[in-house]
Amino acid sequence: MNKPEKAAGSKTEGAKRASFRSWSAAQGITTNGIDYCEIPNSGLGIVAQRRLEAGEELVHVPFPALVTINTVPKAFRKKHKQITTQGLLASFLASSDLEKTAFAPWASTWPTLEDFRESMPICWRQHRMTALTENLLDETTTHHDCDLPFPSAIDHSSADSLDAFFEANPNLGLLQKQRKKLKADWGKVGEALPNMSFERYVHYWLLVNTRTFYFEMPDVKIHPPRDDRIVMCPFIDLFNHNDTGCNVHYADTGYTVTTDKTYDAGDEVYVSYGRHSNDFLLVEYGFVLNSNRWDSTPVDHCLMTHLVNTPVEEQLQRAGYLG
């Protein structure tokens, strides 16, 4: 396994990283035996600075350092009616002059819009942002610029009779679901903030989409829907994904990452975002794994086009093999 190398970078980049480290410490974030650096072909990542033993606590991020729905001022929240947590956090960040906020050092580690254009399938249908609004929100487009179709697990074109089937199968039609979610969030933001730039909003919507963690807020009697139980977590969001990785644990006090095995100095240290196929990873996060124990190739779409409204479909439904 090739060891990641720290990029030399410019003095400006060095100053940004020093600023982020100082900012992290000021937020009460503690780290042990790790640091972040540039990983070839992967952006930023976490690397062991010494030999790490299994069971070592690598980083703790206290609850006050998390960006939650409560981080957003009440007056700003009230402008957004029935919007998802992702949509609200994206609107809040897009509306802020981040260089003048307390988030500035952390924001220097975030992906750029150009990064998302290159890696996220939702952005691949155009090379110019002037065409993004039409193409990105057009649910009928199903092909890449090079005119090659996506796998059906990612992007499907189906007759109306199959809509319910794809709706019931979250591993199929991933890109359509993502487009619909963005379209709904953008509609709410457009009403609340008519002067918001769509280009800027997409950047932060994708940022929140790729860098949030599941979290149940303490002292909440009625929790929001599961998909809305998300927070942004500084420093831990720099860990890259693998199909196995360090243990990530949250509690009322915040987030903690603990090693799952031994790492040598110079090894990249991973966490796992979950048991996700490469189709899911590509659509949601903009990458795939060369080796992924959780990868799969759904064939449901091939079969169901021939089975919809047939006795076989009814038999599968009764037997519990459908949906």
Folded structure, characterized:
By secondary structure, this protein is of the alpha+beta class. The chain has twelve helices and nine strands. The protein has helices spanning 11-26, 74-79, 85-94, 104-107, 113-119, 132-136, 160-168, 174-192, 198-211, 278-285, 300-307, 311-319, and strands at 30-31, 34-39, 43-48, 57-62, 212-214, 230-232, 240-251, 254-258, 268-271. The chain has a seven-stranded mixed beta sheet, with no helix packed on it. Helix 3 (85-94) crosses helix 8. The longest helix has 19 residues, at 174-192. It is globular and about 65 Å long. The two termini are 40 Å apart. Residues 126-135, 139-148 and 157-163 have low confidence and may be disordered.
Number of strands: 9
Using only CA atoms, what is the Rg? 21 Å
The largest sheet, given as strand count, sense and whether it forms a barrel, is: 7 strands, mixed
Regions with little confidence, pLDDT below 50 for 5+ residues: 126-135, 139-148, 157-163
Q: Counting H and I runs of at least 4 residues, what is the number of helices?
A: 12
Strand arrangement in the largest pleated sheet? 1-4-8-7-9-3-2
Shape estimate: globular
Give the tags.
alpha+beta; 12 helices; globular; seven-stranded mixed beta sheet; 9 strands; 323 residues
Quick structural summary:
The protein has twelve helices and nine strands. With 323 residues, it is an alpha+beta fold.
Helices and strands, with pairings:
Layout: H1 11-26, E1 30-31, E2 34-39, E3 43-48, E4 57-62, H2 74-79, H3 85-94, H4 104-107, H5 113-119, H6 132-136, H7 160-168, H8 174-192, H9 198-211, E5 212-214, E6 230-232, E7 240-251, E8 254-258, E9 268-271, H10 278-285, H11 300-307, H12 311-319
Parallel strand pairs: 7-9
Antiparallel strand pairs: 1-4, 2-3, 3-9, 4-8, 5-6, 7-8
